[in-house]
Specification:
By secondary structure, the chain is α/β, with parallel strands linked by helices. It has seven helices and eight strands. It catalyses: orotidine 5'-phosphate + diphosphate = orotate + 5-phospho-alpha-D-ribose 1-diphosphate.
């Protein structure tokens, strides 16, 4: 028997609360004065890198992202170095989909590639991101993947700070899928 929309919605709400509790318990939510990657100042910081080093929290993230991926037409899980790599790796293990790591720049040694893993033009990727603010950090990775001929229509972020990333990604025909929003996390 399939679940109704209200059952699915309740399930996502329970999952969100489970993730919020895990993020707080592992110390990933901090208060103080911080400068974000976007250059913005903030009174709070969400340290998903800390969360990704906690096996219980990482497992919750991977499981919840995998459930979202079941609804998507994708065949590869991608993550941008550094923060996206443990997330994408855990999700790849959970979904058994291939992993692609997107480097921030080309290395001047070895394969001299922006990618670790196989990327084919027919691939349909979902990108994992730790925290989204303006969406600028992930936009470069999306463009590099698309320049290689692959398709990328979804970015799953653990936490969306709700500061424009969804709108910016929509302009690039990418749907932002947050596991939790900052407003929910900071309640």
């Amino acid at each position: 028997m399939s679940k109704t929309n209200s059952e699915t919605g309740n399930n996502f709400e329970q999952q969100k609360q489970e993730l919020i509790a895990a993020l707080k318990a592992c110390g990933a939510v901090r208060y103080g004065d911080f400068t974000l990657a976007s250059g913005k100042k903030s009174k709070y910081y969400i340290d998903i890198k800390k969360a990704s080093t906690d096996p219980k929290t990482l497992k919750i993230i991977a499981r919840q992202a995998a459930l979202r991926i079941k609804e998507m037409d994708v065949d590869t899980v991608a993550g941008v170095e550094l923060g996206g790599v443990p997330l994408a790796t855990a999700v790849s293990l959970e979904t058994e989909l291939p992993l692609l790591i997107v480097r921030k720049s080309v290395k001047d040694y070895g394969t001299k590639s922006r990618f670790v893993g196989d990327l084919k033009p027919e691939d349909r990727l979902v990108m994992l991101e730790d925290v989204t603010t303006s969406g600028g950090s992930v936009r470069d990775a999306i463009e590099v993947v698309r320049e290689a001929g692959a398709s990328l229509k979804y970015v799953i972020t653990v936490v969306d700070r709700e500061e424009g990333a969804g709108e910016k990604l929509k302009e690039a025909d990418v749907e932002l899928v947050p596991l939790v929003s900052a407003s929910d996390l900071l309640k």
